[in-house]
């Protein structure tokens, strides 16, 4: 088992985060080996025969210049490295930053068959890190698809997705510092909001196998909706009548108690544990 060299600063770079989010055991394990500088690491899939990588190095600066001129908003801080304010093991080398709308912009060169939405979905995790490392409010991808003119695609990120990204990164870093292989640990694929699906149980021709159960649960939810609302309103009205110095009320089969945290509970006989 290898040991970490204390003189070297190991980091998780923003550009690697999409592979963590992919949920692929091979990709996650390869990234772990690379991060701990293990000589057993597998060859990078983007090797000497890759065409897109070298092409991107040539096209990206030109694409950024073209887009800045076209929009009239400068893109600065190109190639600058930033570090996460709370995670010193996370860094980001950004393609550029646009002061006009406080936006980090990353340029991607893709083949003509890859949809813009697919590209945005794959790189959403990277843009979370770039935003937080730079301290920017917005993120966008500048996509050159099959040699076409650059297209700016905003990356929309929810708080829930952001939290999931950092949960995966932090768990991976625990594997690095403890030298624990991430496989067979479970690193699920995290789906960004841009790739969420819409299902119409009334109109779609192909439905998921849980559609029947979903219909039944929705009918049950609808049937109990008014009763549940009345129940919640009654509970709040009961609590509003109880003075601060009352710890317990007994009435027939009902018991109301205040705990040490000042939380009030209402129970029926037989319901209490």
Give your account of this protein's structure.
With 273 residues, the chain is an alpha+beta fold. It folds into 2 domains: 166 residues, Lambda Exonuclease, Chain A, CATH 3.90.320; 32 residues, no CATH class. The protein is built from 7 helices and 10 strands. The strands form 3 sheets. It has a 4-stranded mixed β-sheet. Strands 1-3-2 form a 3-stranded mixed β-sheet. The two termini are 50 Å apart. The mean pLDDT is 85.
Task: Give the tags.
single chain; 273 residues; alpha+beta; Lambda Exonuclease, Chain A; 2 domains; four-stranded mixed β-sheet; three-stranded mixed β-sheet; 7 helices; 10 strands; elongated
C-alpha geometry: elongated
Question: How large is the radius of gyration?
Answer: 26 Å
Across the major sheet, the strand order is 4-5-6-7
| N-end to C-end Cα span | 50 Å
Give the biggest beta sheet. 4 strands, mixed
CATH class of the largest domain: Alpha Beta
- Helical residue percent band: 25-40%
CATH topology of the largest domain: Lambda Exonuclease, Chain A
Share of residues in strands = 15-25%
Q: Which regions have little confidence, pLDDT < 50, spanning 5+ residues?
A: none
**Helix count, per DSSP?**
7
Number of domains: 2
Count of strand segments: 10
Helix-strand pattern, N to C?
A: EHHHEEEEHHEEHHEEE
Mean pLDDT: 85
Proper CATH architecture of the largest domain: Alpha-Beta Complex
List the helices and strands and how they pair.
Layout: E1 12-13, H1 17-21, H2 25-35, H3 52-71, E2 81-83, E3 90-93, E4 96-98, E5 103-110, H4 116-122, H5 124-134, E6 138-145, E7 151-154, H6 159-177, H7 211-241, E8 248-251, E9 254-258, E10 264-268
Parallel strand pairs: 1-3, 5-6
Antiparallel strand pairs: 2-3, 4-5, 6-7, 8-9, 9-10
